[in-house]
């Protein structure tokens, strides 16, 4: 049921993405279509204008050619072909006038006039728009000059025609362009739909895969498909890995806790029973042992919490630049060692330059605290804590003057669960396991070994070189 | 049924020198003349009692009694300054509108009457007033009507196709379109404002009794040869339209001048044989029937067929024959455009065309006597090219040339 709802949601979400993209494509196409329509209309008008203007001026020139001077007066002998030319625009009315120098009408229609204003007609034809009996019309005026013995002057020829054929042609061109554009648009829409749908398919597949998964299956998914989807899958895989680690850590913590608490709690119970049954004079001794066991249990709980904290933080807190010297100082300033081992002096060995690593400060502090705690508990004085910058690594270490644990223990030490330590009621193994976890979380290593001054535990991390080296020591 | 009067301005003889001023006077006088003539008709129409024939009560669409009333033989007493040549009135059944549909036409009432009667018969509630005009006068009155100087007719129907094209070009017509009009070929309509209704040949006619069969010219070349004979018996016996008084005659002559080089020869022949230029179809045809003329050139075939004497031979010239399509337009100022469109629809409908064909106004290609080849048939297309014929300078040149032929110089 829940899955069905989730599936419905996923389906709806995907469809809405498709429809949104389609909407975008459609509106783009509509804007484009409007622009194309406008352009086609303008183009159609211009083309029709030019084509029919040529007919008009051709007719005017025909008339001009046909004018002769007869008995001192210009007389036109308009050829039929002139009107044949104009009749090419089938349904348009025609107006024409041949006028003398003073504007008197020689032949033609009285309502055809040369342009009243504007340039005086010269060699070039003058086109203009005017009305012809209430209908829009296009006119052209040309001038023919006569220099004859018995006649000299300018004769203007004005020819006009209504606009039906022009408008029809403009409309025709526009319609043709629109048809082609419309068909192209339809093809584009169809293509866009198919492309978008196929582009959405990996997402759909991803959703199907996720839905089909076992709820406890946190193994990574195959990172194939297009880059965008691969990125998503990669992020998803990382998320699942983190989840997996956390769940694992949680499981471990619970089982460790159960394991590690069983023995000390059993011991405490035994001591308490003994204290009840034993003689009264043994009571202080029993209570003292009970107290020691309880204290040891408290320290174990601290360790376990610390480890849980470290595991939590290393997975969740983003690593940032940390100066290892600050970590050493912080650990010393908390003065936990004075509780653990009063009277033992801890020596701080740090340099002038900042030693930077990319890590989480709190996790590092926990790790170093555990290192120091181990040295104080198990090592011999004097104890030193120091920071060293290596070639490519930054190291923080704790050293004591003792010999360290036995060789066979060294190989096992630092594991998650160390029964020997737990059975003794202390928590050295657990502490080192925290250090190791921190080291691994930030790409570093845990090193243990005997030096000339004693036993040294080193946490080495890759140095963060991008940060400025002149940090101020605190 | 026949118009009771015909105008015969000049029968025979040459044109008098006063003809030009007469033509001018015609245009000036049209407005006055029309008003003067129209008034008596209006008074008749406005008293409709004698015209109406009430139908039987039982029959809602009364059987029509077409009253073809030739009301008048009113002709201006002298010269060409006249208005309509004749008037007829048709009243249909049902409630006739107060104002009848006014049709002005150049067509003789006699040959158009059957079509008009059929139209009135099948259109309830219509009455129709038909005025027969000369083509030039009709052009002038229509132009005056277009410019608002006189009342406009509801339908103008003229054989002066070039004049009709000019009227449409002057935005004097109102558009109308229907499947019937759009089925017309492109050469028979323009702008959906002008439609070619008829299909009539321009023919040569001769008196079969007086012209030997061997002489009858089958082509213009034959006519030319006939006219070139020395001491021809045809001297003074060949007639054609006077292009100055007849718009149709001018159109035919003008088209002849464009069509072939024979036109120059014809003019020369007309001059040599002292041919007669006269005004009207009926005058020419009667002249041929009576033997006053032997041969007449460029006569509308439809008039010939309409009941003149049996001794008239008709020839469609085999070199080329013009076919005229009389043009109809509905004026811009028409009061009854719907009724006018109905008349147009009827005339173009198969029934209307069949009636026109019976009266020779539409010559069907099939079953006709003519054996004209396809290329010899030259329909006069209704298009703006005809405007050239209306050009003042062009007309002036043409008329000058014509006058020189017929011996009257201005």
CATH architecture of the largest domain in chain A: 2-Layer Sandwich
| Strand portion of chain A | 15-25%
Instruction: Tell me the number of strands of chain B.
Output: 15
CATH homologous superfamily of the largest domain in chain A, by name? Histidine kinase-like ATPase, C-terminal domain
Subcellular location (chain A): Membrane
InterPro entries (chain A): 2CSK_N (IPR013727), HAMP_dom (IPR003660), HATPase_C_sf (IPR036890), HATPase_dom (IPR003594), His_kinase_dom (IPR005467), HisK_dim/P_dom (IPR003661), HisK_dim/P_sf (IPR036097), Sig_transdc_His_kin-like_C (IPR004358)
Protein name (chain A): histidine kinase
Enzyme class (chain A): transferase
Quick gist of this model?
Chain A is built from eleven helices and 14 strands. Chain A is α+β, with helices and mostly antiparallel strands and 474 residues long. The longest helix of chain A is centred in the first third of the chain and has 64 residues.
């Amino acid at each position: 049921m829940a899955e069905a709802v989730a599936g419905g949601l996923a389906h709806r979400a995907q469809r809405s993405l498709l429809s949104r993209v389609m909407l975008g494509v459609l509106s783009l196409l509509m804007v484009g279509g409007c622009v194309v329509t406008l352009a086609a209309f303008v183009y159609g008008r211009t083309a029709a204008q030019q084509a029919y203007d040529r007919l008009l001026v051709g007719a005017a020139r025909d008339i001009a050619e046909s004018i002769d001077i007869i008995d001192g007066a210009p007389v036109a002998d308009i050829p039929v072909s002139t009107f044949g030319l104009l009749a090419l625009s089938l349904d348009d009315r025609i107006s024409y006038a041949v006028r003398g120098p003073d504007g008197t009408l020689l032949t033609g229609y009285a309502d055809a006039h040369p342009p009243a204003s504007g340039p005086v007609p010269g060699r070039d034809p003058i086109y203009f728009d005017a009305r012809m009996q209430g209908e829009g019309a296009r006119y052209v005026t040309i001038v023919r000059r006569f220099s004859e013995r018995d006649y000299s002057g300018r004769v203007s020829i004005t020819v006009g025609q209504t606009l039906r054929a022009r408008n029809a042609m403009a409309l025709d061109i526009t319609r043709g362009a629109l048809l082609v554009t419309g068909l192209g648009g339809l093809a584009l829409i169809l293509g866009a739909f198919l492309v978008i749908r196929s582009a959405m398919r990996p997402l759909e597949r991803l959703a199907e895969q996720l839905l089909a998964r076992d709820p406890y299956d946190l193994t990574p998914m195959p990172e194939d498909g297009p880059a965008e989807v691969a990125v998503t899958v990669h992020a998803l895989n990382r998320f699942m890995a983190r989840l997996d680690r956390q769940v694992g850590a949680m499981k471990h913590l619970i089982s460790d806790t159960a394991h590690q608490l069983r023995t000390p709690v059993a011991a405490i119970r035994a001591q308490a029973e003994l204290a009840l049954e034993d003689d009264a004079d043994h009571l202080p001794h029993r209570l003292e042992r009970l107290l020691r066991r309880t204290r040891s249990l408290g320290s174990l709980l601290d360790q376990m919490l610390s480890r849980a904290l470290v595991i939590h933080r290393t997975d969740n807190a983003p690593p940032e630049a940390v100066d290892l010297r600050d970590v050493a100082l912080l650990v010393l300033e908390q003065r936990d060692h004075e509780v653990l081992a009063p009277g033992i002096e801890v020596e701080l060995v740090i340099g002038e330059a900042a030693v930077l690593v990319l890590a989480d400060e709190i996790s590092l502090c926990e790790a170093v605290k555990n290192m120091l705690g181990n040295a104080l508990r198990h090592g011999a004085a004097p104890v030193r804590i120091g920071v060293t910058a290596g070639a490519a690594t930054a190291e923080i270490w704790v050293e004591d003057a003792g010999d360290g644990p036995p060789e066979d223990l060294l190989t096992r030490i630092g594991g998650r669960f160390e029964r020997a330590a737990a059975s003794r009621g202390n928590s050295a193994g657990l502490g080192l396991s925290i250090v190791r976890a921190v080291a691994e979380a930030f790409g570093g290593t845990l090193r243990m070994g005997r030096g000339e001054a004693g036993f040294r535990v080193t946490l080495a991390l890759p140095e963060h070189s991008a940060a400025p080296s002149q940090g101020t020591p605190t | 049924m026949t118009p009771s009067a015909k105008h015969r301005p000049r029968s025979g003889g040459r044109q008098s020198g006063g003809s030009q001023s007469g033509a001018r006077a015609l245009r000036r006088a049209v407005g006055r003349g029309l008003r003067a003539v129209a008034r008596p008709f209006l008074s008749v129409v406005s008293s409709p009692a004698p015209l109406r024939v009430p139908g039987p009560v039982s029959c809602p669409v009364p059987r029509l009694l077409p009253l073809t009333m030739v009301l008048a033989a009113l002709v201006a007493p002298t010269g060409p300054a006249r208005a309509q040549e004749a008037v007829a009135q048709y009243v249909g059944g049902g409630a006739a509108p107060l104002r009848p549909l006014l049709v002005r036409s150049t067509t003789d009432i006699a040959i158009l009457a059957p079509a008009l009667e059929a139209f009135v018969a099948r259109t309830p509630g219509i009455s129709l007033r038909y005025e027969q005009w000369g083509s030039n006068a009709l052009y002038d009155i229509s132009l005056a009507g277009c410019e608002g100087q006189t009342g406009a007719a509801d339908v103008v129907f003229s054989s002066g196709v070039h004049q009709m094209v000019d009227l449409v070009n002057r935005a004097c017509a109102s558009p109308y379109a229907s499947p019937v009009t759009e089925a017309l070929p492109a050469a028979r309509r323009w702008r959906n404002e002008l439609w070619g209704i008829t299909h009539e040949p321009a023919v040569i006619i001769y008196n079969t009794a007086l012209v030997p069969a061997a002489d009858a010219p089958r082509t213009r070349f034959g006519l030319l040869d006939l006219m070139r004979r020395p001491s021809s018996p045809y001297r003074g016996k060949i007639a054609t339209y006077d292009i100055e008084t007849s718009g149709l005659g001018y159109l035919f002559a003008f088209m002849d001048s464009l069509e072939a080089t024979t036109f120059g020869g014809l003019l020369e022949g007309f001059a040599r044989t002292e041919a007669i230029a006269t005004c009207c179809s009926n005058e020419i045809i009667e002249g041929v029937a009576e033997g006053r003329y032997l041969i007449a050139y460029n006569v509308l075939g439809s008039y010939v067929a309409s009941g003149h004497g049996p001794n008239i031979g008709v020839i469609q010239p085999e070199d080329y024959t013009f076919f005229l399509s009389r043009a109809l337009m509905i004026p811009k100022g028409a009061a009854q455009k719907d009724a006018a469109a109905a008349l147009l629809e009827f005339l173009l409908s198969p029934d209307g065309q069949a009636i026109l064909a019976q009266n020779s106004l539409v010559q069907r290609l099939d079953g006709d006597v003519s054996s004209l080849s396809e290329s010899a048939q030259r329909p006069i297309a209704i298009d703006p090219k005809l405007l050239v014929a209306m050009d003042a300078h062009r007309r002036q040149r043409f008329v000058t040339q014509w006058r020189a032929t017929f011996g009257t110089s201005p």
